[in-house]
Structures are given as C-alpha cells and as structure tokens.
Specification:
This protein is of the alpha/beta class and 449 residues long. The protein has two domains: 7-201 and 317-442, Aminopeptidase; 203-313, Alpha-Beta Plaits, CATH 3.30.70. The protein contains eleven helices and 15 strands. It has helices at residues 34-58, 67-78, 128-149, 169-175, 228-242, 282-303, 322-334, 365-369, 393-398, 402-424, 428-442, and strands at residues 7-10, 85-87, 97-102, 109-115, 154-160, 184-191, 199-201, 203-212, 216-217, 251-258, 266-267, 270-279, 306-313, 355-359, 374-380. A six-stranded mixed beta sheet has the order 2-3-5-4-6-15, sandwiched between helices. Helix 1 packs antiparallel against helix 3, helix 1 (34-58) crosses helix 10 and helix 3 packs parallel to helix 10 (402-424). The longest helix is centred in the N-terminal third of the chain and has 25 residues, at 34-58. The radius of gyration is 24 Å and the shape is elongated. Bound molecules: zinc ion (ZN) (2 copies). One zinc ion is lined by residues 1-2, 126, 164, 390-391. This is Peptidase M20 domain-containing protein 2. Belongs to the peptidase M20A family. GO terms for molecular function: dipeptidase activity. It comes from Thermothielavioides terrestris (strain ATCC 38088 / NRRL 8126) (Thielavia terrestris).
Length: 449
C-alpha cells in the first residue's frame, strides 16, 4: 500500500455510541494501567524485536516468496514464553502462518495481521517490516496481559503474505476461512505524512482484454480481414470519453500490451490491453467495471472482432471501524511522547464528523474489513534523506532506521491497547459489531461518502 494522494475528509455524522465518547470512569481503561503495562512490556521486548525487524528489512522478499521472513517470524513466535500454537505454511500458502494464544476461557478473539513482503527491485520500500514488528509486539503484549490478568479470549497473529500486487494473501486467508470466529482484525501501515486510525483506501480491480480478429493483406484483400487493433482503438476512445463522466475517486488506467505487431501491410489479427480500475468503494467499483466492460464490448461490436475480458478482482476499499479507531486514538494519545503530526480527533458524539484519511492506493486489508471489524492505522516515520513516500528507494532507507522501529513499537502499544479494550470493556465488542453492521449497510451505496 502506498500513501500518495492523502487527504483528510470529514464525513457525515453517524449514530452515537456511549463507548465512543466515554465517561470519565470509562476513560480509566478497565482496571487502570493496562496501557502503561503494555508500554512497559513492549519496551522490554525492544531488544529482541530489533534484530528481527532488521533481518526482515535487510532480506527483502517479494510477494509469496517471503521464506526467510516466514522462518524468522515463526521461530520467534515459537521462542516466546507464552504458549503460542504456531502453524507454519498455513492455509495452503507456503509463507502464510498463524500463531494462536488461547486463554482457555471463552471470550473475544482479537487478531493482528503481519505483513512481510517487499517490492521487486526496491526492497522494503513499503515498510512491511515495520508492520510485522508492530503486529508481533501488539500480539505478544495482548497475550501477556491476558495471562497476567486471567482475561478470557484468544489472540491470533496471522502471517499474511503477498500484500503487494493484486492477488493478496489475506484474500486467500479469507477464502480458507482463517477469519471465521475472529472478532476484530488490527494492522497498521507506515508512511511519512500522518498518524490516523481512520484510514480509507480505494477499491481496485484489473481487466485483461484481448481482441481476436482475422489477418488479411492490407492492400490486396483487406475486406476479408477483421482488425483487432481497430477494435482496441475504438474501445480506448470509448473509455477516454467515459473518463469525463466518472465519479470522484474513479481512476481508469489503460496500457496496450499487444498492438498487433509491426506490419503496416497486414490487418492485425490480435490486440490486447490491461485496464486498472480504482474507485472509492467496492460498490462503486462494480458500477465502473460494468461501464468499462461496455466500452470494450463496443470495440468488438464496431469491428466484428471477438473480445475476451478477464476480470481479476483486486482489493476492496478499507472500511475502518470507528469504535475501534476511537479506542486506538485514545491509546495513541495517552502513551507518552505523542509524535507529530497529531492524530485527527477520534469520532465523538458531539462533533460526529470523523476525519478519514483517504489514501489513493489499495490493500487486501480492505477485504478483511468487509469480513470483520478492522483498523488499519497509518503512522508517520521520520522521512529518508529525500523525503520519499512509500514505494520509493528513499522510503526503503527510512523503514530500516531505529527511529522507524521505535515508532512501530509505539503503534504496537496502541494496537494492543485497542485489543485489550475489546477484551476488558463490557459492551465494547457489541458496539464495534453494531458499527460494522451499519458500515456494511452504507457500503452497499456506491455514492462516495
Ligand atoms: Zn505498498
Ligand atoms: Zn504496503
């Protein structure tokens, strides 16, 4: 996931809930001091996590080939004193894994996703080593608190391969039922611009389009040919015309991958393109895909070529759960040394105008957010020498520093604080789930909010 195109957007107010605007008593986070206990615990882990963070950073592996990271992370989880049940190569993927801490008493199941993959040729230019660090720290701290205070429930850490690209590992985990029985899913993502618990990303899909015509000599008997390149050009023009009437947030990218060859004296028998589509929501994306498909069919109709359209569903938009986000923001602001930039206010009953961070890129955590309540917290790390954003060589340097690591630990503390809130605050999980149901109803509306 990248963080380019970031803007803060105030959204329409929603129904209030008591726990989003806690009373002073509720602010005392259950038995007071859970958060400071989490802080102390994660600080004590720092020297064990730093080499792990560096190892992942210095051994970048691309999507679904995170063999070294998989080994290092599962070894680390096995080495912990809390009794974690660690399953390597889980859910039919060599580099997916799951670690479960079960209190033995029925209660909420809280989960954290651990991303591991890097970018081809760019190393950890998306900082997924920091995501891994934050989630592992959070998972361990949550389990430690559960053990010490005999809290019911369980913690799951999912090693989720292949976030970069368009066939996310989390989607495969969802298909395999990994999140069945999971109550919440927490994750984070580094950037350089902002700290936010209310992150919205775009929905993304990809069309591979091929036209099949009939070859003929372009001078002797062109009337016997069917020009596949003409079909593609007509479709390209139709898509270009459609671009005027798209909705805010819609993005249509086209690349011609087969122009039919170099010959000018032949009717081109084959032509192909790839089309990448983004929209503010999965519902809107469905509409956009239908419109663009129509353009491609139009090229075929106009020329008599046959068209083959292969749709690769990409990622859904991320719908942040604002009840969980409020908990995360409270923890973030209660931890000492709050870094810049300040986190936008969490949603409250009075203001009722949550500020979403809209990020013009996509993540498979979006698909998870349609299955279980989710937070994908953005956090700012000190920029590299050139101030480069994610997916730049500069950000790959920035994500390997000790300062970035310390920031990830801070995120881990706030994520653990959120999970412990869910485990300890009566009625909070019900509030979270009620909000998620409202969000899923809203998500059926394709108009951008
Ligand atoms: Zn990325
Ligand atoms: Zn990323």
């Amino acid at each position: 996931m990248e963080e380019d195109g970031f803007v803060l957007v105030a959204n329409k107010g929603e129904e209030c809930c008591s726990l989003m605007n806690p009373t002073p008593e509720q602010h005392q986070e259950g038995p007071a001091g859970y958060l400071s206990e989490i802080g102390t615990f994660i600080d004590s882990l720092a020297e064990a996590l730093w080499p792990l963070n560096r190892f992942i950073h210095d051994n970048p592996e691309i999507a679904f080939q995170e063999y070294k990271a998989h080994q290092a992370l599962t070894d680390f989880m096995r080495s912990r004193q809390e009794t974690w049940k660690v399953t390597p190569s889980a859910y039919g993927m060599e580099t997916a894994w799951v670690a479960v801490y079960d209190s033995g008493k029925p209660g909420p199941a809280v989960s954290f996703n651990v991303e591991m993959d890097a970018l081809p040729g760019l190393g950890h230019a998306c900082g997924h080593n920091l995501i891994a660090t934050a989630s592992v720290a959070a998972g361990l701290a949550t389990a430690a608190l559960m053990r010490r205070h005999r809290l019911p429930g369980k913690v799951l850490l999912f090693g989720t391969p292949g976030e970069e690209g368009y066939r996310g590992g989390k989607i495969r985990l969802l298909e395999q039922g990994a999140y069945a029985g999971v109550d919440i899913s927490l994750i984070s993502h580094p950037g350089i611009l902002h700290n936010s618990a209310l992150v919205r990303t775009t929905a993304f899909a990809r069309l591979e389009v091929t036209y099949f015509g009939r070859a003929a000599h372009a001078a002797k008997n062109p009337w016997e040919g069917i020009n596949a390149l003409d079909a593609l050009v007509v479709a390209y023009t139709a898509v270009a015309a459609l671009r005027q009437q798209t909705m805010p947030g819609d993005v249509i990218g086209l690349a011609i991958t087969d122009g039919g060859g170099d010959a000018t004296n032949a009717i081109h028998a084959r032509a192909a393109c790839v089309c990448a589509l983004r929209a503010a929501s999965a519902a809107r994306l469905e509409q956009l895909v239908a419109r663009v498909r129509g353009c491609f069919r139009g090229g075929a109709e106009a020329t008599g070529a046959r068209v083959e359209i292969i749709l690769t569903p990409g990622y859904k938009d991320h719908v942040p759960n604002r009840v969980l986000a409020a908990s995360y923001a409270r923890c973030w602001n209660q931890l000492p040394d709050v870094p810049d930039p300040p986190m936008p206010s969490p949603p409250t009953c009075g203001a009722a105008e949550p500020q979403f961070a809209r990020i013009a890129s996509s993540t498979d955590q979006g698909d998870v957010s349609y299955a279980v309540p989710s937070v994908n917290a953005s956090f700012a790390i000190p920029p590299g020498p050139r101030g480069g954003q994610p997916h730049s060589a500069d950000f790959a340097i920035a994500s390997g520093t000790r300062e970035a690591f310390e920031r990830a630990l801070r995120v881990g503390k706030a994520l653990a604080g959120t999970a412990v809130d869910v485990l300890t605050k009566e009625g909070l999980l019900e509030e979270v789930k009620a909000q998620w149901k409202r969000d899923m109803e809203d998500a059926k509306n394709p108009s951008p909010s």
